[in-house]
Amino acid sequence: MKIITVSETFSVSDQIRIEDIAQLAEQGVQLIICNRPDGEAADQPSVNSIAEAAAGKNIELIHMPFVAGGLTDDIAARFRELMANNLKTHAYCRTGNRSLQLWHSISSEQLEKKLSAVQNTGQATQHFDVVVIGAGAGGIAVSASLLKRDSKLRIALVDPSTKHYYQPGWTMVGGGVFKAKSTERETTKLVDKRVSLLQQAVTKVKPDNNTVVLHDGAQVHYEQLVVAPGLTINWGAIEGLEETLGKNGVTSNYRYDLAPYTWELVQKTQRGRAIFTQPPMPIKCAGAPQKALYLSADHWLKTKRLDNIDIDFCNAGGVLFGVPAYVGALQSYMDKYGVSPSYNHNLVKVDGDQRKAWFDVTDAEGNKSQLCKDFDMLHVCPVQQAPAFIADSGLADQGGWLAVDPHSLCHTEYANIWGLGDVMNTTNAKTMAAVRKQVPVVAKNIISVQAGQAPRAKYDGYGSCPLTVERGKIVLAEFCYGGRVAPSFPNWINAGTKPTRLAWWLKSLALPFVYWHMMLKGREWMTHCPEEKT
After folding, report:
1. What is the DSSP letter of 159?
2. Which of residues 339, 355, 381 is at a domain's end?
């Protein structure tokens, strides 16, 4: 059970088990809402069995089932009534996504009423020098970086999650190199004690008032705002995907609980067809779909199964990799593993029970058709987008991403709002390595502005993608804006655009240590950023 705390009185999770009831009771839960229809999966506990166990702990259970994309007005209205009782409530479904959708069904009108009620009670708005939205890699790192530069800053970090994940490690989990648990930490143990951690979701930013509105209706005032919530994974954008994830041979390294299933499938697959997909850009780590393919194919090659397995790489885009300098090395591995990439193939539908996947295919003339493929294993890279509150707050570009200057990372309209990480509309790769270089730029510029000076630090678009082309070798792709290759290490480590074993050790040993013990603590190793001359 992976709990996401949405507000003081509401949390969600994936499917709960009878043994989880005791934990929910200890947390003071008074009401459980099940949003999952009975019988969705063979291993799913029945609602009655969960209700019986909950009753033993004096917890009521209400069954409000709906399928993905099937939330009705009646269910939403009933949910609003339950929330009005102000009971400590926990909702669950198979993944937690439907329960979160139900929470988001609370209308903006109700939110404004809540906010008005808070203001009328005289409850003081919290004031901070810097508010950071998002306790991911960027949010925690920039909080620490700011405090290194000015220990007197009053900083609030806003994020509902209780767990923090080293997401670059999930590819290695899916390849049998890391254990999933090694990528997980308690959020509270990573955040500097001088930072006020507000474990709630953000519903809106009011940039003209310098306030952030939280899910419970409270508002937080800022002088400087760092927007670093990451991006949103939209599993529901592919028809039938949510219902079959984690079973029927359908998996994804883009989720903590599914990466181990990827490795399980890789070990079990003896023959047939394995499909690896990549959706339209932008996505988090554009090389990740290929990494899953390479590590899987390498295992099948070394266990003498590759000749019996057809591998498809179905890419919604038109090229293998966005930086031409690295395409040659990657194509050589596609050839080695017998893969012929299928470009302009966008996954739109999955039927896990029948082991079928449908793709929208666009030909060279722009004509569109649909193609169905059978599979024995399907690794899906999901559709990704910016969180909805970015557009709702008037901070987005036309695509919904946070609009910032690509070098200063300052918002294009509001001089006291800064972007960081995957949420931005910058053209760099959305990777942890990019965030590592962005953090000191944002921290230095905020310190300058707070001192009445102009921001001078500049981000050059650096990103890195350690492409795990086989177990023990990596093509260490490093590049800046415009696709310019920008190696950080001498050739004896990364060999330019060729795979090396030293780059593998960097990825598997050095970088996790740098992440947990340096980056998140404000120790900025190899993060020099240029500054404008005065």
Report:
1. -
2. 381
The H or E element containing residue 476 is strand 473-480
Q: At residue 120, does pLDDT exceed 60?
A: no
* Helix, strand, coil percentages for the chain (3-state, nearest 5): 35, 25, 40
Active site residue 465: yes
For 337-425, where are the alpha helices, taking DSSP H only? 388-392
**pLDDT score of 428:** 92
Q: 81-90, 130-139, 482-491, 496-505: which range is least confident on average?
A: 482-491
CA separation for the pair 56, 60 (Å, rounded): 10
Decide if 314 is catalytic.
no
Domain CATH for 15: 3.90.190.10
Residue 432 reports pLDDT greater than 70 = yes
Mean of pLDDT over the chain: 89
Domain of residue 143 covers 126-231+386-455
Task: Look at residue 133 in the predicted model and tell me its pLDDT.
Answer: 97
Among left, alpha and beta (phi > 0; psi -120 to 50; other), residue 210 is left
pLDDT in tens, 93-106: 887 878 877 887 76
- Kindly name the residue from 381, 465, 480, 529 that is annotated as catalytic: 465
DSSP string, 193-252: TTSEEE-S-EEEEETTTTEEEETTS-EEEEEEEEE----EEEGGGSBTHHHHTTSTTEE-
- Per annotation, catalytic residue among 93, 285, 314, 529: 285
The reported pTM is 0.77
Tell me, yes or no, whether 292 and 341 share the same domain.
Answer: yes
Residue 420: other Cβ atoms inside 10 A: 31
The whole-angstrom separation of Cα 394 and Cα 371 is 39
One-letter amino acid at 304 equals K
Predicted local confidence at residue 311, as pLDDT: 97
483 lies in some domain: no
Lateral strand order in the sheet of 309-315? 250-251, 377-379, 272-278, 309-315, 342-343
Q: Which of 404, 394, 438 is nearest to 424 (CA)?
A: 404
CA dist 349 and 280 (Å) reads 15
